[in-house]
């Protein structure tokens, strides 16, 4: 049972962990490695083909035990079971959370409101397969009789990031003769730069929007339709060039897309968890339905790991608890994600939405304020590039910054010894961040190099690296669809675990509404002479600056 009376930070387990944290921040993690030759073997594991080392975290066995006790107190595994059983765990929207059903390759019945969802899930996968096969085989023709060569996904947030991330990650599998493009931003240059290189006769637009009400997506989709109709002979041609993914049939129809060309998703799929649904259609069009299913297989293997294991054997559980430890007990504010290998370049952006939109909350599911911090700020970028840019702050700055190092071991495109060098850099960076370098060591080296004592005294302090920066390292044999599926599911469940400890609703996102509402209110005032006296001073000043440089061509007159 989840804790009946929430005691938050007053819980003895929480308080014990606070004492441990104070002790641990005084220790250097290298001492733990020195004292225990088995540390890495114990604080690491395997899940669904991923090798995960968390031994460089500032944790000891008693901390892990304490965190597991905290998970028990907060009912984390009960909530996990509720999720897999279709309980409405998204309380503020009264919805079940069943992205795991989308990749339930075992076909085990998963019930939601007493109905097995698997037949519907499988029917959509079949529809996708038929469509993808006909596009890839060239049977599906554009209005002028040409096969499709380019797919443009128009969507934003969860209807963009995951799909985009996976297409980049698995780009070395792209052998089906289809190119894929992504348009998400309402900034006109995003769409314009893509349309400039496309031919309407051979282009297929996938309008991806769970709600089919998102301003950016609808604006881009309308503009794409206008562009298309400038060359297409008649509106009927839209049928062959526009498909939609949504929960909302009527809005899709109103937009002018044939409901036969609509792939449904469901309210029980959160946007940021939706790449496994028909939102992932561009992945299948780009890579083949067989690869899309292998992606689902990988995620399913990780789901089974999460569903069936407890305690230290459950790696998403452990990683989620370590995130809580770093944020709430060690006082770190951020989590840096460093994929090595350019194909994972969009991973930080996707995970930003998964983690920060899920766990960036300030009230618990019962509406009461949380009494600890919640989600870290997730940021990151590619190794090795980041090493020559912002890693300096991790090595010598004043903040504790936990990081994740991620890489495939083998590359699909070996060149000389570059992969070896890449992996050496990955292992070296997490090692350097953990070990650091002491002043005595630096002084001894400088002396050996013949530096005089005055120079040593002046320079040595600048070269000290304190070490002690915690990290996880996640490796997998190769960037296969299965590995990418497992990696993404690992993060999803890790976020789930931390959210469950904080007892927040990880599946709503009310905070994003305010800005959308204000943008709609402000639009008529941008570049116009409407009286804006009711706004605050900063807003009026900004509107005035815009007005001074505005030209008539910036205001579109298009609608519908
Ligand atoms: O798929 P859509 O309904 O167009 O939503 C796209 C995105 O926009 C919203 O503002 C939400 O914050 C995201 O969670 C969602 O993924």
From TrEMBL:
Active site: 357 (proton donor), 388, 516
Keyword Isomerase among UniProt keywords: yes
Keywords: Cytoplasm, Gluconeogenesis, Glycolysis, Isomerase
Function: Catalyzes the reversible isomerization of glucose-6-phosphate to fructose-6-phosphate.
Keyword Isomerase: yes
E.C. no: 5.3.1.9
InterPro entries (UniProt xref): G6P_Isomerase, G6P_Isomerase_C, Phosphoglucose_isomerase_CS, SIS_dom_sf, SIS_PGI_1, SIS_PGI_2
Top EC category: isomerase
Pathway: Carbohydrate degradation; glycolysis; D-glyceraldehyde 3-phosphate and glycerone phosphate from D-glucose: step 2/4; Carbohydrate biosynthesis; gluconeogenesis
Example GO molecular function: glucose-6-phosphate isomerase activity
Family per similarity comment: Belongs to the GPI family.
Enzymatic reactions: alpha-D-glucose 6-phosphate = beta-D-fructose 6-phosphate
Organism lineage: Bacteria, Pseudomonadati, Pseudomonadota, Gammaproteobacteria, Chromatiales
Predominant subcellular localization, coarse grouping: cytoplasm
The protein, known as: Glucose-6-phosphate isomerase
Pfam family, one: PGI
Subcellular locations according to the entry: Cytoplasm
Matching SUPFAM superfamilies: SIS domain
The organism of origin for this protein: Guyparkeria halophila
């Amino acid at each position: 049972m989840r804790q009946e009376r929430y005691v938050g930070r007053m819980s003895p387990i929480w308080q014990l962990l606070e004492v441990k944290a104070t002790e641990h921040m005084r220790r250097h993690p290298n001492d733990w490695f020195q004292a225990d030759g088995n540390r890495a073997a114990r604080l690491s594991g395997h899940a669904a083909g991923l090798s995960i080392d968390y031994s460089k975290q500032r944790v000891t066995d008693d901390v892990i035990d304490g965190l597991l006790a905290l998970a028990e107190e907060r009912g984390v595994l009960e909530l996990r079971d509720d999720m897999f059983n279709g309980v409405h765990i998204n309380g503020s929207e009264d919805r079940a959370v069943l992205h795991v059903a989308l990749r339930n390759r075992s076909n085990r019945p998963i019930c939601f409101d007493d109905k097995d969802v698997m037949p519907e899930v499988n029917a959509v996968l079949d529809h996708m397969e038929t469509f993808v096969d006909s596009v890839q085989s060239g049977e599906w023709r554009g209005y002028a009789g040409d096969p499709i060569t380019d797919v443009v996904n128009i969507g934003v947030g969860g209807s963009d990031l995951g799909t985009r991330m996976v297409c980049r990650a698995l780009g070395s599998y792209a052998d089906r003769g289809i190119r894929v493009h992504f348009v998400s931003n309402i900034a006109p240059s995003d769409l314009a730069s893509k349309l400039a290189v496309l031919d309407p006769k051979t282009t297929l637009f996938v309008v991806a929007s769970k709600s089919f009400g998102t301003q950016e997506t609808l604006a881009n989709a309308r503009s794409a339709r206008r562009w298309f109709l400038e060359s297409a002979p008649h509106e009927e041609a839209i049928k062959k060039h526009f498909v939609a993914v949504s929960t909302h049939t009527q809005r899709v129809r109103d937009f002018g897309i044939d409901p036969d060309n609509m792939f449904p998703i469901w309210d029980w799929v959160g946007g940021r968890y939706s790449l496994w649904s028909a939102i992932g259609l561009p992945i299948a069009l780009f890579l083949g339905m067989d690869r899309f299913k292998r992606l689902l297989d990988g995620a399913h293997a990780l789901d089974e790991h999460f569903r069936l294991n407890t305690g230290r054997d459950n790696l998403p559980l452990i990683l989620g608890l370590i995130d809580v430890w770093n944020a709430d007990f060690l006082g770190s504010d951020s989590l840096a994600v460093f994929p090595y290998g350019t194909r994972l370049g969009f991973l930080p952006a996707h995970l930003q939405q998964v983690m920060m939109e899920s766990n960036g909350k300030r009230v618990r599911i019962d509406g009461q304020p949380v009494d600890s911090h919640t989600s870290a700020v997730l940021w990151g970028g590619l190794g090795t590039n980041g090493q020559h840019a912002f890693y300096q702050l991790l090595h010598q700055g004043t903040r504790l910054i936990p990081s994740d190092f991620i890489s495939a071991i083998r590359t699909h495109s070996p060149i000389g010894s570059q992969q070896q060098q890449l992996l050496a850099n990955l292992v070296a960076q997490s090692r350097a961040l953990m070990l650091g370098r002491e002043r005595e060591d630096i002084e001894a080296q400088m002396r050996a190099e013949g530096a005089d004592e005055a120079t040593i005294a002046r320079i040595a302090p600048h070269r000290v690296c304190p070490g002690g920066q915690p990290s996880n390292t996640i490796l997998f044999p190769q960037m296969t669809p299965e590995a990418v599926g497992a990696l993404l599911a690992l993060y999803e469940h890790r976020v789930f675990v931390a959210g469950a400890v904080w007892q927040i609703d990880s599946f709503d996102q009310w905070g994003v509404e305010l800005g959308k509402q204000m943008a709609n209110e402000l639009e008529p005032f941008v570049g116009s002479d409407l009286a804006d006296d009711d706004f605050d001073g900063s807003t009026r000043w900004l509107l005035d600056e815009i007005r001074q440089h505005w030209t008539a061509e910036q205001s579109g007159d298009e609608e519908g």
